[in-house]
Amino acid sequence: MSSSYVKLPLNRILNLEEYVILDLETTGLDSVTDEIMSMSCIRIKGGEITQIFNEYCLIEREVSPLIKKLTNISKKDLEQSDMDIEVLDNLLAFIGDSIVLIHNASFDLDFISEVLIKNSDPEDKINYPKIRYIDTLDLAREYININDIISYSLENIMYYLELNLKPHNSLDDCKIVYYLTRHIKLLATK
């Protein structure tokens, strides 16, 4: 992972008034061979969702039946979308210099790095964006007892928090992180 990605201490979340939550949906788990299908962010100010970024990416490969079933995204859904680097540019502009919350951050940041590598000239140094982030997977592990939850996946956190959202949908996954963060802030004040 690039040194331009700066992991912040978990306790920073307790005092944040403004931040962005990021999630990606991909064609698989390998950042080198798989592609990003959708990128989503929500901006939080004063504890409320104030802005939403949600865009699909044009991909080259077919979407496997498993990924289509999980995400409800097919290649046809993506045909009118922009290339991943164009969507990433828009996403980074949306993030600006905000602190970013990402669940299992290394996964998403590895995919972002690969988009930058794939779209750069091999002769040039890659200009990685500076992203200051908090990994909410670590946050969940810190504040939710493993005996109360099957695993710390966003889907299981959704069930734990009794939310009616669609896991493996990048925008709804951002919302799961939003509710997780609210939950953890309440736990931390007790």
Could you characterize the architecture of this molecule?
- The protein is of the alpha/beta class and about 190 residues long.
- The chain has a domain at about 5-135: 2-Layer Sandwich (Nucleotidyltransferase, domain 5), CATH 3.30.420.10.
- The chain has seven helices and seven strands.
- The protein has helices at about 65-70, 75-80, 85-95, 105-120, 135-145, 155-160, 170-190, and strands at about 5, 20-25, 35-45, 50-60, 80-85, 100, 130-135.
- A seven-stranded mixed sheet has the order 1-7-6-2-3-4-5, sandwiched between helices.
- β3 (about 35-45) and β4 (about 50-60) form a beta hairpin.
- The longest helix has 20 residues, at about 170-190.
- It is globular.
- It starts with a strand and ends with a helix.
Instruction: Using the coordinates above, name the CATH class of the domain at 5-135.
Output: Alpha Beta
Largest sheet entry: 7 strands, mixed
> What average pLDDT do the residues reach?
93
Write the CATH homologous superfamily of the domain at 5-135. Answer: Ribonuclease H-like superfamily/Ribonuclease H
Low-confidence blocks of residues: none
The 3D shape can be described as globular
Ends distance: 35 Å
Strand share of the residues? 15-25%
Counting DSSP H or I runs of 4 or more residues, the number of helices is 7
Which percent range fits the helix content? 25-40%
Structural class: alpha/beta
Report the CATH architecture of the domain at 5-135.
2-Layer Sandwich
Fill in the CATH topology of the domain at 5-135.
Nucleotidyltransferase, domain 5
Give the topology string: H per helix, E per strand: EEEEHHEHEHEHHH
Radius of gyration: 16 Å
Number of strands: 7
Neighbour order of strands in the largest sheet: 1-7-6-2-3-4-5
